[in-house]
Amino acid sequence: MLNETTGPYFAYFMIFMVLEIASLIVAILLPRKSFRRSHQGKRYSYLSDFPFELYEARDAKSKVGQGFLIGYAASALGFAFFPLLLCKFSPFEGFFALFLVHLLLTAGEVGLNFYLTIVSAINPKRHTLIFTIYGGLTLIRFVVDGLIIINVGHHFQGYQVPSGNALGFLIPLFVFALGFAVLLMSPQMGKWAELHSTMNQDGSTYCTRPKFFILAATEWFALLANVLCDLLFASSLLFYFLKIAEFLD
Prior knowledge:
The protein is mainly alpha-helical.
């Protein structure tokens, strides 16, 4: 039930949720034609092409797309600030430190993700190093967010909110974290730069990427998983906030 207390929090949640999703959609769809034009008609593939390759054309659409990527980063940080706003509501005051950790982890993850769209994989050691840090930070954030949801659910049992409700948020979070961990630990990751060799009729050979280029695909999966993690985490806190506000009303 929305009222004078809950209305502003709900509005903040909705505004930044829409901004984060909309800006990301524009950022990853708008530059596709620029990529195709600069790669002799080749279609962009989210399974074999890196995020940074979307913006290499440096024409108007790719620059605008990168601008929306910055907008996504800003809105993701605004969305991550939502839990700290809930600390103004007395039942959430004890979670300030945990919510601050969530914000800092999100800031690091968003910053590294944006940096990956700038650092070309032509320098594989640097790109791999940045992705390794980014991947580790993403997994840590999944774990921290899951623990926070468990603690919040347990803490608010006294407000007649069953702790089992947390499972609805934890299960999909666990699935995304597990999927990402499997990709990170895949044996293919250690030889991600290997290409397929094809022989022409004249005997010459040329190299192409496999349809599933694991590092590129994992970077896209990580971005998607982080957005969904944002939604699940914030939605779980909003759920408990509305339930507790209703109980105290």
